[in-house]
Model the fold of this input.
Amino acid sequence: NAGVTQTPKFQVLKTGQSMTLQCAQDMNHEYMSWYRQDPGMGLRLIHYSVGAGITDQGEVPNGYNVSRSTTEDFPLRLLSAAPSQTSVYFCAPLGESAGEKLFFGSGTQLSVL
Amino acid sequence: GENVEQHPSTLSVQEGDSAVIKCTYSDSASNYFPWYKQELGKRPQLIIDIRSNVGEKKDQRIAVTLNKTAKHFSLHITETQPEDSAVYFCAARERSGGSYIPTFGRGTSLIVHP
Done:
């Protein structure tokens, strides 16, 4: 778990503001993902990446952009924050093999007012 | 894509009782089924997992069973303790475009009363 660092831990935004959630890893994971967690909804995939320069949409991509210019960094951007984006966000490496275990970064709690 | 249903959403037990949480999945191609425990304010932590070629797996007071034919898997916690109180998530993972994408259930809030 220590190999994936998320910043910030907490953030409060006003509607319409933009921000970037940072995810950095030093474990050379090719495959990375962003999930959001909402009460009663479980963890839902926003975007994922299978390598530098390659990203794809998950279940709930609207309102979010990602990029993967390097293997180490996988930032999540909110271009114009909305109250519906109030959530806890987790960055997580995805398994590259069937038995590889999925673990989560420490999370970012975001509130949009 | 995969769809994972998890029941119950809330489970209240007395200390020492057993707790069972059940999940069903839709995609027969899913081959890996992890369970996560999330304590308040913390990240989900993997507690046990099972692959599709295994029917049951145990780790002390925790066990997971898998029925591939019926496409359901369950988490069993015996001799529950107050520190077992948390939200538990199941997931089913399938291969998609070269990666293994997990789909999560909506979670079960387990409350263990002393």
Summary: The two ends of chain A are 31 Å apart (CA to CA). Chain A touches chain B at residues 1, 31, 33, 35, 40-45, 48, 50, 56, 58-59, 90, 94-107 (CB under 8 Å). The longest strand of chain A covers residues 42-51.
